[in-house]
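Hey, can you fold this one?
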Amino acid sequence: MQIALAPMEGLVDNVLRDVLTQVGGIDWCVSEFIRVSDRLLPPRVFYALAPELQDGAKTRAGTPMRIQLLGSDPQCLAENAALACTLGAPVIDLNFGCPAKTVNRSRGGAVLLNEPELLFRIVQAVRAAVPAGIPVTAKMRLGCDSPEGALDSARALVAGGASELVVHARTKVQGYQPPAHWEWIARIRDAVDATVIANGEIWSVDDWRRCREVSGAEHFMLGRGLVARPDLALQIRAAAENRTAQTLKWDELLPLVQDYWCQVRAKVMPRYAPGRIKQWLHALTRGYPQAEALFADIRRERECPPIDALLGLQSAPAETGAGKRSSPAAFARLHRSSPPPPADTLRLAS
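Sure. Predicted structure:
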């Protein structure tokens, strides 16, 4: 069984990929999509969105990272895919799943599922442009308004040369609203000769079990569920092996929150950095009651130094932007409360 970390534009950047893969249980992750329009992008664009390329295309924990491209021009996507391979991409993934209106208006993401012939030409062009040893994969939804075209889309992608499909079991219009239609993953698995990975609405071990039963899938991609519960992959892997895994306690998670903030402080402009920590903390409130109090304190702050203090960090010099970490034990004393609920019992809303 493979468990992957989903690419989520604007949320799972290289910093969160680094932190989440440190927890463990993740076999591979994917970059945020790199938007391709009408030109060959300079290498700096790839390095900006996927700096892991400069470290063997792996996170600090050693987890492999794939490069995801988004666009609608077959030739331009092919040229950029070839460049990504020269920069060290081990796998090229193509995005046909993004439901964002701004992306779809530019003929990118899930809107292309209305055009199976174009899907075929895109994958065919990319497959021809990259070395034979580099897999080409695709991420898709069930369709735009309806899942009725899902089988045609999946067949077109595989016929073009995709060796693996990640299927987010919702339509574009559905966005992230439950339920996920895992039964369509089973139908797609029957329709194509390729590995099919299940994605969508897996927030807990119980969700994973239901998804596996309904979809028949052997491999899974976790998105918001893993962001909210960083040990979810470990919990699922333990359940698959009929063993019990210790849940990640809040005191163990706090140093990772500190690490995340220190990296954000070092890499993100100060005016934008507070929004990043608020975004992740808000997600963590769904699985950790302790995060709710911390988020309530931090959500009012617009400057970095007060957040440093609330996180138990010494403020950094302005020119570096990074904070100095205090001891995890001291930090834990600031925000300790009741233990988190078991991962299996979580019911998280989209």
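The first strand starts at residue 3 and ends at 5. Let me know if you want another pass with a different chain boundary.
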